[in-house]
Design brief:
Length: about 130
C-alpha cells in the first residue's frame, strides 16, 4: 500500500494535497482497498461552502456505500470530471487520476489538525 509523504491524511481515510490556498482531496489507498471495486462516485456539492467534517459526497463500491468528509473547511471549486464515467480510476490511482475534489480553503489553520503520513500509518496499523 502506498502513502505519499507529501500529503496530509484524515482519520476518515481522505488524503489532502495542499498547494497555496487550494487543497486537492481524495481517498487513500487503504480506503479504496477496503471498499473494493468502486462503481459510482456522487459529488453534488461543487460551488458550495462545506465545513470541516461535513459530508461532501458519497462513494459506492460493490459491497458498500461510504460518505466522504471534508478534511478542512472550504469552497468546492472543482469535482474530478472523470469520476462520472470511470469511477474505477479511484481503485487504480487514488493519489493521482482518482482525486475527488479541489477546494479553496477558508481556514488554513485546520491543516495542523490533519495527520502526517506516520500518524496515518499508525492509524491503519501499517
Amino acid at each position: 500500500m502506498k502513502f505519499p509523504d507529501n500529503l496530509k491524511y484524515t482519520k476518515d481515510h481522505e488524503w489532502v494535497k495542499i498547494e497555496n490556498n487550494i487543497a486537492t482531496i481524495g481517498i487513500t489507498d487503504f480506503a479504496q482497498s477496503e471498499l473494493g471495486d468502486i462503481v459510482f462516485v456522487e459529488i453534488e456539492t461543487e460551488g458550495e461552502d462545506i465545513d470541516k467534517n461535513e459530508i461532501f459526497g458519497t462513494i459506492e463500491a460493490v459491497k458498500t456505500v461510504s460518505d466522504m468528509y471534508m478534511p478542512v473547511t472550504g469552497n468546492i471549486k472543482e469535482v474530478n470530471p472523470n469520476l462520472e464515467d470511470t469511477p474505477e480510476i479511484v481503485n487504480k490511482d487514488p493519489y493521482g487520476e482518482g482525486w475527488m475534489i479541489k477546494i479553496e480553503m477558508s481556514n488554513e489553520s485546520e491543516i495542523s489538525e490533519l495527520l502526517s503520513v506516520g500518524e496515518y500509518k499508525e492509524l491503519v496499523n501499517i
